[in-house]
Amino acid sequence: MKILIIGPAPTGSRGGNRVSALRWARMLRAEGHRVRIAAEYTGQPCDLAIALHARRSHGSIAAYRAAYPERPLVVVLTGTDLYRDLQSSARARASLELASHLVVLHPLGAERVPARLRNKVRAIVQSAEPLTRPAVRRGRWFDICVAGHLRPVKDPFRAALAARGLPKDSRIRIRHAGGALSAAMEQQAQRETALNSRYRWLGEIPRWRVWRVMAGSRALALTSRMEGGANVISEAVAMELPILASRIHSTVGLLGEEYPGFFPVGDTAALRKLMRRAERETGYLEGLALHIRRLAPRFAPAKEQGAWAQLVEEALHSASV
Fold it and tell me: 137 in a domain, yes or no?
């Protein structure tokens, strides 16, 4: 089948949405489909369209539905869709009506979709390939990484602020990989790097270098205020890398309510306490790693590919009935 993936991220972007679109394209090609990726719908012929972002892709969603009233249309709901735009944007809500199927990226996501539309929803957890060599997490520093672009919804400097208040004997250092999406954020990252001896902003670097930073860290700090289902969680699980995470709906959906590494959103002192505990209590860090290892099957690439293959088959079958 001819499948078109529509996403607002431009070619060459290192953003999460573009990375997801490329991974889905590879998986669907492996199932024998012909797949194209485009920033918007401009009349490209296809048997099925997959659009990221209910609000940002609404123009493309509406245009595709007008061109093909009966063909399947899958809309993937992002964090800003689920936790902001569905409440405030008529365009986002209209996209849900136009879709034949909706995809959320964590098991609790359907709770944020209107009840009458939940029959359209399928949860497909994003995956990551297992690390091919053992991670090295030893040395003078106890490195904690942050992997994500500098955006307000990511609360990107929370780990840096937590590190400021650590005692002198702490070996914790924060290494932050991610591009600044505004001049103000770039200036803040540069200023924090200059003033905070425990923080270093690495900027936007290739994904293989991000993985190297993660593989050399003792833990990942995920401090977001809003996520749709962070793929960095999948990558950390693939590396058996413990995660210190803000307790938000999507991350709870991926890691489980009982995961012992959560802290309240925006709570610098609570994050600092977890960081210090991870550094000083071997049993706590090992417990986080054990929990992560037990979650690995949920994030397996074969499971994600199978879920997409099943959804495409279901969507095409329902359109032909």
Answer: no
Its domain, for residue 190, covers: 142-299
| One domain for residues 35 and 64 | yes
Q: What tokens does 32 get?
A: 């024998």
Chain-centre distance of CA 77, in angstroms? 12
**Contact of 299 with 128, CB cutoff 8 Å:** yes
CA atoms within 13 A on the CB side of 205: 15
Cα end-to-end distance, the chain, whole Å: 17
Q: 3-class SS at 241?
A: coil
Same domain, 86 and 233: no
Q: 53: part of which helix (H) or strand (E)? A: none
- Which two structure tokens, joined as six digits, stand for 215? 């593989």
Residues 151, 172, 182: CA angle, nearest 5 degrees: 15
Euclidean distance between CA atoms 69 and 247, whole angstroms = 40
More confident residue, 318 or 311: 311
Interval 261-315: pLDDT, tens: 999 999 999 999 999 999 999 999 999 999 999 999 999 999 999 999 999 999 8
Residue 52 burial class via C-beta count within 10 angstroms: exposed 0-12, middle 13-18, buried 19 and up: buried
Q: Cα 317 to the chain's mean position, in Å? A: 30
110-133 b/e with 16+ CB inside 10 Å = b?
bebbeeeeeebbbbbbbbbeeeee
Work out the burial of residue 235: count CB atoms within 10 Å of its CB; fewer than 13 is exposed, 13-18 middle, 19 or more buried. Answer: buried
Between CA 266 and CA 95 the distance in angstroms is 32
- The widest CA-to-CA distance across the chain, in whole angstroms, is 68
